[in-house]
TrEMBL record:
Membrane-topology descriptor: Multi-pass membrane protein
Keywords: Cell membrane, Membrane, Transmembrane, Transmembrane helix
Native source organism of the sequence: Clostridium tanneri
Pfam families documented for this protein: BPD_transp_2
Ranges annotated as spanning the membrane: 23-44, 77-95, 102-121, 127-147, 209-227, 258-277, 336-354
Name of this chain's protein: ABC transporter permease
InterPro entries, sorted: ABC_transp_permease (IPR001851)
Length: 370
């Protein structure tokens, strides 16, 4: 069958159109969230209703200047962006398989403590030590996610409940290592500073931004390639779209469930290891969650579970987090950041709900017509 040039052009236009449509709703949700957040700025700064657009200008200006106002701020924003790319991609690949990996937070934490331990090994070249740091994150996060993945595949247990519980276990594992083993420094309630050979190279002396950002972008590109250009990715997406249909077509659901959870955890683990080796250099005892794993849910939702889309989504949320201090200095509550994030999530979730009922109506119509 011959394919004309006109058909190729139409296919190209359809791809572009579909891409623009997929971006339209997230972009609209961001705009709406800013317009809603302005009312809280007006309340905080005691603006009248006639000064609405002045308050809007203040909010946008502070966020932009606080995140990208100069090279130092731009680089510092990348410190927040880097772990969000990793955790966003970790959630995205799980979503593609129809899994809700709430345990990305715990897997990120396990990757972090594994890197803190491996980073203490003396006498290694950076060319060996840095890959070992990344490998430690892969192993720590992958194993931590593989446990609920195995339970889901073999016994049908709910991965949401299991991964939530493992988040709390991960905090206690870190605290035991830091406070009750020879690895930790009890007087400081932290592990020792990792070797210089294990520390990620910084982009500049004016910021903590480091090559972990490059690793994050590469990871997003590789997962995109895996999902859309390989047989493994096709099977993962098929299970996520219709598990029973995929099984009927000969796809092993259990195997893909475990594989996806391990991949998701490994990516989160690399994020934790990168954060340790590039920013923290040691692990302290944890009183609560670090938070990047949960923020990654918002990143993946805004990106519509597209690994490449997680990059701009992470930049948005990273910029909001980075500008929180500047917001406070301008008499704007830093909670505005969480408000904007929440509104974005609500709108994106609404889009999923609308599509769910549309698909349900189409299926019902197909049955009636049949």
């Amino acid at each position: 069958m011959m394919v004309s040039k006109g058909d190729n052009k139409n296919n190209g236009r359809n791809i572009v159109t579909d891409a623009l449509k997929s971006l339209a709703f997230p972009f609209f949700s961001i705009i709406v969230s800013l317009f809603v957040a302005v009312f809280f700025v007006m309340w905080a700064k005691e603006y009248s209703i006639t000064e609405y657009f002045t308050a809007l200008s203040d909010l946008i200006t502070v966020i932009v200047n606080g995140s990208f106002g100069d090279p130092a701020k731009t680089l510092e924003t990348m410190v927040f962006v880097t772990p969000l790319i990793f955790t966003g991609v970790a959630h995205a690949i799980a979503f593609k398989c129809g899994l809700f990996n709430i345990g990305v937070e715990g897997q990120f934490t396990l990757g972090l403590i594994c890197a803190a331990i491996v980073g203490l090994i003396p006498g290694l070249s950076p060319w060996i030590h840095v890959p070992l740091i990344i490998l430690s994150g892969i192993v720590g996060g992958g194993i931590w996610a593989g446990i609920p993945g195995y339970l889901k595949a073999k016994f049908g247990t709910n991965e949401v409940i299991n991964t939530i519980m493992m988040n709390y276990i991960s905090i206690n594992v870190v605290n035991i290592i830091v406070l009750r083993t020879p690895i930790g420094v009890a007087s400081k309630a932290s592990t020792p500073t990792i070797q210089e050979s294990a520390q990620f190279l910084k982009f500049s002396t004016i910021s903590r931004a480091n090559i972990g950002l490059i690793f994050a972008v590469i990871c997003a590109l590789l997962i995109y390639w895996l999902l859309w250009k390989t047989t493994v990715g096709y099977e993962i997406r098929a299970v996520g779209i219709n598990a029973f249909g995929a099984e009927y077509g000969g796809i092993n659901i259990a195997r893909n469930t475990i594989l996806t959870m391990v991949l998701s955890g490994a990516i989160a683990g690399i994020g934790g290891a990168s954060h340790l080796a590039g920013v923290m250099y040691s692990s302290t005892d944890l009183m609560g969650f670090i938070g990047y794993g949960f923020d990654g849910i918002a990143v993946a939702l805004l990106a519509k579970s597209n690994p490449i889309g997680c990059i701009p989504a992470a930049i948005l949320f990273g910029a909001l987090n980075s500008s929180s201090r500047m917001l406070q200095l301008n008499s704007i509550p830093k909670e505005i950041v969480y408000l904007i994030q929440s509104i974005v999530i609500i709108f994106v979730a609404t889009d999923y709900i609308v599509k769910y009922f549309e698909n349900k109506r189409r299926k019902k119509g197909a049955i009636v017509n049949g």
